[in-house]
Amino acid sequence: MSTIINCDMGEGVGNDELIMPFIHSANIACGYHAGDAATMQQTVELCLKYKVAIGAHPSFFDRENFGRTEMKLEQEEIYDLISQQLFILNETVAGFDTKLLHVKPHGALYNMSAKDSLLAKTIARAVKDFDASLIVVGLSGSYSVSEAKALGLKSANEVFADRSYQDDGSLTPRSQSNAIIDDTEKVVQQVVQMINEGTVTTISGKKIPIVAETICIHGDGKQAVDFAKAIHNAIRL
Length: 237
Description:
By secondary structure, this protein is an alpha/beta fold. It has helices at residues 16-19, 37-50, 75-95, 107-115, 117-130, 143-150, 184-196, 224-235; strands at 4-9, 25-29, 53-57, 102-103, 135-139, 154-160, 199-201, 207-209, 214-217. Helix 6 links the parallel strand 5 (135-139) and strand 6 (154-160). Helix 7 (184-196) packs parallel to helix 8 (224-235). It is globular. The relative contact order is 0.15.
């Protein structure tokens, strides 16, 4: 798989159309952490306009904290959470006579499933039961990817342009001051290293292996448009 650029969208930030020309796929908020019926429709329209692949970005039901607070739910509640959001977005997508391509959990749900095999398996099961052709996007080398593969689903190892990494391959928690990379040059350097070398330099200075099949840009970041342009230009063949 050649490396593609994805972006979290439909979150009400207002910069989606500015980013669209520089990405390949969009992860659209399904209303649980951000977005609503109108933003889902607008974002799908933009995806079709710019020929960007359409994906779902399901979250914990937590608009107050933008889906970034951990929640302890039963596995069947997680299953229903994913299924409901896929159904909600798919209704909009089907109205444009097109299809969802992938699913990427959001925020705390994403980070928890990366480290929890049972949670990752439950998410993958919900995706498979909804549409077995969907690609599950998860943190590179995590349970999110391995559990999807174990169920026979397609998967994509995701890396982050604007986030720093721990020695175990996890993302530095947002609660720490060095979690976000806000310098465009450093963002591009990290992306190029991950693609060309298959490594990332952690906050301790250690180089660890990483699989970069898709690169995430956070659409709600202040420099999202600049990052998208710079990364697009850096990896363009």
